[in-house]
Amino acid sequence: MIKIRYAEAKDIEDMIDVNLKTWRTTYASIIDEDYLLEREKEKERENRVKRDKDNFGRLEVEGRKFYKCVAIDNEKVIGTATYGKCRQEDRYGLTNAGEIYAIYILKEYQQRGIGKKLINFAVNDLINENYGKVVIWALKDNPNVKFYKKIGGNSKLTRNIQIGKQTLEEIGFVYDDIDELLNSTKDMSMML
């Protein structure tokens, strides 16, 4: 059974591995191969592990409170989500907005409702922080953008981001009613 819980320091290496594997399977045809290979180099991975361990337990980055949660299957981390205060409320005319900064699920676990569980867990925290809406950014060519629409996201925002030497377009899915997002991501099997 898949469980969602807050990330712990012991999860850092597994979370980084989920991130690297998910980028490889999701973005292989979108992001330059050289950039993906550079991210996967052992030295780069070691640097990320060290940085994340050094920063683990901090609740704020650049003045924003943030959280991390993981999806666990038989004590194995198979998905992660990072979320908190919207990074650019003013730029996009948003007020009282939370943001799910990243969500990664190993390919072999996708299409099983784990994304909904991670988002539901995150949204509960965002509600407890008194946010009224949520934003999730995804690369425009990400094959999973249909998921964000399916759970009620309106693709109201766009921006360009730099990844390696590429400039790529992102879509910002806005969920104007956080309670609707919470309901659309409920695990109905738990209600039986």
Report on the architecture of this protein:
With 192 residues, this protein is α+β, with helices and mostly antiparallel strands. It has one domain: Aminopeptidase. It contains seven helices and eight strands; from the N terminus they run βαααβββαβαβαββα. Strands 1, 2, 3, 4, 5, 6, 7 and 8 form an eight-stranded mixed sheet that branches. Strand 7 and strand 8 (166-175) form a beta hairpin. Helix 5 (114-128) runs antiparallel to helix 7. It is globular, with a radius of gyration of 16 Å. 28% of the residues are buried.
Radius of gyration: 16 Å
Secondary-structure-derived class: alpha+beta
Distance linking N and C termini: 16 Å
Q: Could you report the average pLDDT, rounded to the nearest whole number?
A: 90
Secondary structure tally, helices: 7
Reading off the top of the CATH hierarchy, the class is best stated as Alpha Beta
Total E-strand runs: 8
Q: What sequence of helices (H) and strands (E) makes up the elements?
A: EHHHEEEHEHEHEEH
Low-confidence stretches: none
Instruction: Give the DSSP E fraction (strand runs of 2 or more residues).
Output: 25-35%
Percent helix, as a range, is: 25-40%
CATH topology: Aminopeptidase
Given the C-alpha coordinates, what overall shape results? Answer: globular
Query: CATH superfamily membership, which one?
Result: Gcn5-related N-acetyltransferase (GNAT)
> What CATH architecture label applies?
3-Layer(aba) Sandwich
